[in-house]
Amino acid sequence: METVDLARLQFALTAGAHFLFVALTLGLATLVAVVQTWATLTRNPVHLRMTRFWGQLYIINYAMGIATGLVMEFQLGLTWSGLTEFAGNTFGASLAIETLVAFFLESTFLGLWIFGWNKLNRWAHLAAIWVVTLTAYASAFWILVSNGFLQHPVGYERAGGVLRLTDFGAMVANPTAQVAFFHVLGGAMVTGGFFVAGVSAYHLRRRTAEQDLFRKSLRIGIGVALPATLFTATFGGIGFETLQPAKAAVWSGDAARIAAAQAELAAAHGPGDYLPPAGWVQTGALTMLIAFAVMFFFSGLSAVLMLIRPAVRSLRVWHRLLTLMIPVPFVAMLGGWVFREMGRQPWAVYGLLTTEQAMSPLTGAQMRVSLTAFVTVFAALIVTNYLLLARAARRGPDAVTLGDRPLDAPPTEPALSL
């Protein structure tokens, strides 16, 4: 395998794995913030326990996501120095903003939320989780602004063989980034909704003690997943209008459109194969669409079943299927990511810099060592995250340590009122 192919494989595996953590983090943060809002307004002890339980799962996933994000930063700098030298003055601005948002604002307020139980005023504590949620959205937005520039470069000039940013507003308003942001945000809500519903169904099927908590959680999960699926599909459809001509042609399978797209790119950039790999593009899109159909059907059916109270309480077949649905949104997210990123090939910056030109001057042996190291680290993080999440989810609210009252606190002290 050529060095550039090894580098692409490394980036695909690390970015794709990190994307899965991001999707669940965004979805769970929103659900935890909404549940805590209701708990703060009503002082309902069940919703308070829900906040602590789902919040602890969120923190586990967030921690692993931060670790994979740091590894991503290393591999981007080590393997793709040609990209940063050529276009770092453009999309680097939005990456820098994302770093400030994620590693300063988001992490600071998350620390206040984690350690502020029983210490902060209940409204200040609620505000902390909403700041965490909104900064998570902002972080995702700036990442997609950077990615949108790579997909469809705007607001730049070429000087001295490199790109320079001339219109920051144009880069931010790039339709390729804007549409992708809402599509990803909707997908994250679907992921979080099915995760909450699936874990809740597991406990309902096993008749664990916290039946009321998990019935409410199941309703919230499905109540989010169904409209979020439609929201995601809407922006996915709009996103098809922003596809690069070559990607659109390959996706359509129309031989005439494919030939026209290739001829246009060859005329602009010289002889060469400028078409993305048809197999990857079509497989990624079909995987995403099939997973969407499955999620839409099942969330719609679940919404109907939720109207029947005995079904929520005792329909074990439905509970088992809901638990099995947990990985489906992740499959859809990965399919969509493959469709988006493979469809840009062979360009790192579409129409301006090829993937081969974007690579660092590495040998095949160096790339094999790097690939092995990164895959090993990511595999360990993914397995660790799965085991920790599965254990915490299986053990239920009684094993939650988030927000525990200090041992010397009065037993009547309300957890959210100090």
From TrEMBL:
Its EC number is 1.10.3.-. The keyword Ion transport does not apply. It comes from the Bacteria. It is an enzyme of class 1 (oxidoreductase). Pfam families: Cyt_bd_oxida_I. GO terms for molecular function: oxidoreductase activity. It is a multi-pass membrane protein. Keywords: Cell membrane, Electron transport, Heme, Iron, Membrane, Metal-binding, Oxidoreductase, Transmembrane, Transmembrane helix, Transport. The chain crosses the membrane at residues 20-41, 53-71, 91-115, 127-145, 180-199, 220-240, 285-308, 320-339, 369-389. It is found in: Cell membrane. Belongs to the cytochrome ubiquinol oxidase subunit 1 family. PANTHER family: CYTOCHROME BD UBIQUINOL OXIDASE SUBUNIT 1 (PTHR30365:SF15), CYTOCHROME D UBIQUINOL OXIDASE (PTHR30365). This is Cytochrome d ubiquinol oxidase subunit I. It comes from Nonomuraea roseoviolacea subsp. carminata.
